[in-house]
Q: What sequence folds into this?
C-alpha cells in the first residue's frame, strides 16, 4: 500500500481505534484482544452517538415549527434538561475527556436551546425568548472559558443526577396531567433513550468517571419513562383531550 494512502487510512482509523489497537488489528492481525475490542466498540458507539445527536431533536423542532405551537412541552423541563446537558458538556470539556465521550452534548445543547426558544416564542413571550438565548450564551462562556473552577463544575456535575431525573419526570408529570404527550416527538424520545443507554458503556470505557456514569444511568431510566408514556398515549387525540 502506498505510504501516503496508508497514512491517510491510519489517520481515519484512529478516529475509532487507539494507535495500539490499530497496530494490533491491522499490522499484527490480532483480533482477539478484548481490551481493544471494548475500546474500539466504545469509540464507534461514541462517533455514532455524536452523528445521531446532530439531528436527534430535529423532529421535535420541526413538529413545534410546523404546528406553530409548543403545547404539551413543559418549559421548566426543557430548561432543566438544557442545564444538565450544559453542565456535563462544560465539565467534560474542562476535564479534557475525549470528544467522542461527550461531543453529542454540544449538538443536544444547541437543539434543546432551539426547542426552548421556540416554545417561549409560540407562547407569545418573544422578549423572554430572546433573553433565554442571550443568557444561555453568556452562561456557556462563563462555564467553559476558565472562569469557573473544575471543583465547582464537579459539584455541579454531581448535582446533575437529580437535575436530569427531575427535569425528565417534570415532563412526565405534565404528560400524565394532560393525558397525552402533546408536541413531543416519538423519534426524538426513542433516540435519546438509545443514546443515553449507549453512553453508559462509552462513559465507563472512556472516562471512568463514576458521577458521569451514574448520570447516564439516571438519564436512561428517566428517558424510559417518557418512551413508555409515548407508547401509552399513542392513539390519544390531542384536540379531543384539550376540549
A:
Amino acid at each position: 500500500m502506498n505510504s501516503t494512502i496508508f497514512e491517510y487510512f491510519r489517520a481515519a482509523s484512529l478516529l475509532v481505534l487507539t494507535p495500539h489497537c490499530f497496530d494490533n488489528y491491522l499490522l499484527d492481525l490480532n483480533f482477539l484482544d478484548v481490551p481493544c475490542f471494548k475500546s474500539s466498540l466504545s469509540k464507534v458507539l461514541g462517533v455514532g452517538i455524536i452523528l445521531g445527536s446532530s439531528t436527534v431533536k430535529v423532529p421535535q423542532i420541526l413538529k413545534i415549527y410546523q404546528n406553530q405551537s409548543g403545547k404539551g412541552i413543559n418549559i421548566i423541563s426543557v430548561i432543566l434538561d438544557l442545564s444538565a446537558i450544559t453542565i456535563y458538556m462544560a465539565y467534560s470539556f474542562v476535564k479534557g475527556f475525549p470528544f467522542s465521550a461527550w461531543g453529542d452534548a454540544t449538538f443536544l445543547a444547541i437543539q434543546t436551546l432551539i426547542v426552548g426558544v421556540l416554545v417561549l416564542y409560540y407562547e407569545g413571550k418573544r422578549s423572554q425568548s430572546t433573553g433565554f438565548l442571550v443568557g444561555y450564551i453568556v452562561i456557556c462562556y462563563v462555564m467553559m472559558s476558565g472562569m469557573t473552577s473544575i471543583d465547582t463544575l464537579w459539584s455541579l456535575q454531581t448535582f446533575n443526577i437529580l437535575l436530569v431525573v427531575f427535569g425528565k419526570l417534570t415532563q412526565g408529570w405534565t404528560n400524565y396531567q394532560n393525558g397525552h404527550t402533546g408536541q413531543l416527538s416519538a423519534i426524538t424520545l426513542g433516540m435519546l433513550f438509545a443514546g443515553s443507554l449507549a453512553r453508559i458503556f462509552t462513559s465507563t470505557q472512556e472516562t471512568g468517571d463514576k458521577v458521569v456514569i451514574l448520570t447516564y444511568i439516571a438519564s436512561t431510566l428517566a428517558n424510559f419513562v417518557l418512551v413508555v408514556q409515548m407508547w401509552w398515549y399513542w392513539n390519544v387525540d390531542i384536540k379531543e383531550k384539550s376540549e
Summary: The chain has a mean pLDDT of 85. The chain has eleven helices and no strands. The chain has two domains: 3-32, 56-242. The longest helix spans residues 150-178.
